[in-house]
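Two entries, shown back to back:
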Amino acid sequence: MKAARKTADGRFEIAEVDDPVLPADDWVKARVRMAGICGTDLRHWEKAEAELHCCIMGHELAGEVVEVGAAVTRVALGDRVLIESVLGCGHCAWCRVEQYNRCPDLYPTRRASVSRAYAEYVIGPQHKFHPLPDRVGFDDAALLDTYAVALHAQHLSGLTIGSRVAIIGAGPIGLGQLMLAKASGAVVTIIDPLPHALALAERLGADRIVQAGEAEPEAAVRAMTEDRGADIVFECAGGESMPETLPLATRLVRRGGVVVIVGGFDAGTIAIPLEWQRIQMSEIRLIPSASFAFHDIHAEQLEVLDLVARGVLETQALITHRFPLDRINEAFAVAQDRRRTGAIFVGLTV
């Protein structure tokens, strides 16, 4: 099959590789139709990382079932499917209680099968393949990993109707966070440096938009909250901006409020100075949020699939660019340079 493999310099090369083979009778093989480029992927872009050399990457994907094992009952040949790529080892203490997003072997496990979206075919256990309703396209479904991340963060936050919410970052996760918060009855301020992202946020229902660097986020949030600060702040920017955005999040939140850390960190030790005395004396809670899994008895990925199918969450407005897999390096360059290109969500047709 054709696949995009990581090169020594962190870019991609298109190569012919062996098709994946079903290792068990309850596994499924699918033809990838659409794959997304997320912030995690971008943090590895053009970085020399020996451990990823020649790896097939990508974890936001949808496709069509082309092979099933003898014990598969969940899907059938020809089914259009959302492919969930958060796959734990299946036997650790966390996986046994459906907290597989906390699995110690999560990344090695998922990279061996379902988290290989930048290729023609993927395989995985049948419980990670979810049939798509007719009204949900492959491109819509490729956004659902992102929306499930946002839903997991909202579940952790304790958000209720009428909550005053601030969101830092108007990328796909931040915009998903916005739509979920608005659907739950919250009043939302969203902060981002890019005018095109804020314009879309306003269209999607933001009560107030703040352009970072041009306006003062703290004053804007306090004006919306009777000078108290937000009940909940979602940090959805992550990456290199975190040393600025995480302290900002703790300044935007009210006493007794919640900061949910949704944006991702790079590996290793990262020092971010915070006003710990003020955080402690104000009883501000910092809640890290990692990927998604189950909320009570409900799979969070299936919850967002239902919300998209019912029209509660919008998808097409976020999909600004589409590229064929052969142009993956161009697609990554466009996704990275959001200010110049106006990119929000960049998809790859495979």
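entry 2 starts here
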Amino acid sequence: MDSHSLAFLFFALLLVTVECNSEGDALNAWKINLADPNNVLQSWDPTLVYPCTWFHITCNNMNSVIRVDLGNANLSGNLVPQLGNLTNLQYLEAFGNNLSGSIPREIGYLNHLISLDLYNNQLSGVIPQTFGNLKSLIFMRLNSNKLKGTIPDKVIKLVQFGNLRIMNVSDNLLAGSVHRHGFATTTIIQDAKKLRSC
């Protein structure tokens, strides 16, 4: 094999490795933004091609991340925009931690997301408008944070016309009104002191 063929083969392998590790890179970007006093994330090794062997990560048969389970893990820090690169993610479970800062709008591009559980944290800012893109979402629990503003109309439409069955936004700093028409099969739990029902 000549040197040009070897160089091409090396470059092709490098490209495949970089592409295959994009989910690991996304999760590692989150890891380096987190304080982890109990070493829950110690198995998260960014040098591995796939993160499927990491604790608290579940992959499908194509070695793509479909579940992140970090509930009650005593983590603090921020969610990162790179989480939007987990394109096959179905479950993001990060409840009961001390996560702070805003919720990245990029999470709203996770088209396969079924369950988003970020409750019992210290998250602030608004509920991203992009959450209205989450057509597969069934459970969205954002309660017991410091979120403010209103529930985006596109998210309310997920309740009215989409798959969203449980939306808990109670114990936040939200305001505005929610029209209850069409919510017969859906549970919406909200902060009664701040939200008006019409």
